[in-house]
Amino acid sequence: MKQIASVVAALVLVVSPSLAESAEPAGMRVRISFPAAVRAEAVTGRVYVALNRLDAPATGRGGGGPIQQAGPTGAPLFGLNVESLKPGAFAEIDGTVFGHPVASLDDIPKGEYLVQAFVNVYTKFERADGRTVWLHMDQGEGQNWRRSPGNLFSTPKKVVFDPRAKDAKARILDLVCDQVIPPIPAIADTEYVKRLKFKSTILSKWWGQPIYLGAGGASPSTWARPCCCRRTTRSTPA
Fold this sequence. Notes:
By secondary structure, the protein is of the alpha+beta class. It is 14% helix and 33% strand.
C-alpha cells in the first residue's frame, strides 16, 4: 500500500503542473481604457473593438481605421456595455462577448491585424413617464456613433493576434482611447440655402434633456431676381 501511495503522489507531482497550464483560459482579452486628459468624467455607454487584416480590401466606408470599416462584409466588431467606467480603469472584451460578422474573438485566425478601440458615450435621460434610460445623444451627426462628437477612439494599432498563444501575456491586448471626436462645425448659410435650429419644448420635457430640431431650406436661384415680365398698365384718355 505504501508503494502504491508513493506512485500516486509522484504522478500528482508530475501531472499537476500540466493541469495548471491547461487551466489557464485560452483566447484573446482586449482591455479598453481612456485617460482623464481626454475625459475626466466616468462613462456609461458601450465600448467596441474592431480589427481588420492588413491586406483587407476597402469596404467602401472610407478610412479612419477598422472602426469605420466595420460592417456585415467588413471588419469584425465586438461590443460591450459599460457603467460608470472611470478614467484609467478598463473594460475587457474576451471570447464571451458577442461580435459580428465573427461571433467571438476566439474565432479570429492567427495573423497580423490592425486593431482599434472605441468608446460610445451615453447620456442619462430621466423621461416624463418616470423611467430612466441611458442612450446615445445625437450631436448633430445623425445618430452615427462612429463620428459623433465627444466619443473616444484609439489610434489603429498593428498587432499579432493569436488566440491560442501559449504565453498568457501575448493574449492580452491593451488599447487606450486617447482621442476625442471634435464638434461638427456649423455650416454657414448662403444666399439660397438657409438653416434653422431650435429647442423643442415638448421633446425636451419628455426626455428630460434639451432636445433640438433642425431644418434646412433651399430656394431657386431666381427667387430674388427682379421680374422682367411684369405687365404694365396704362390709362388712355377717353
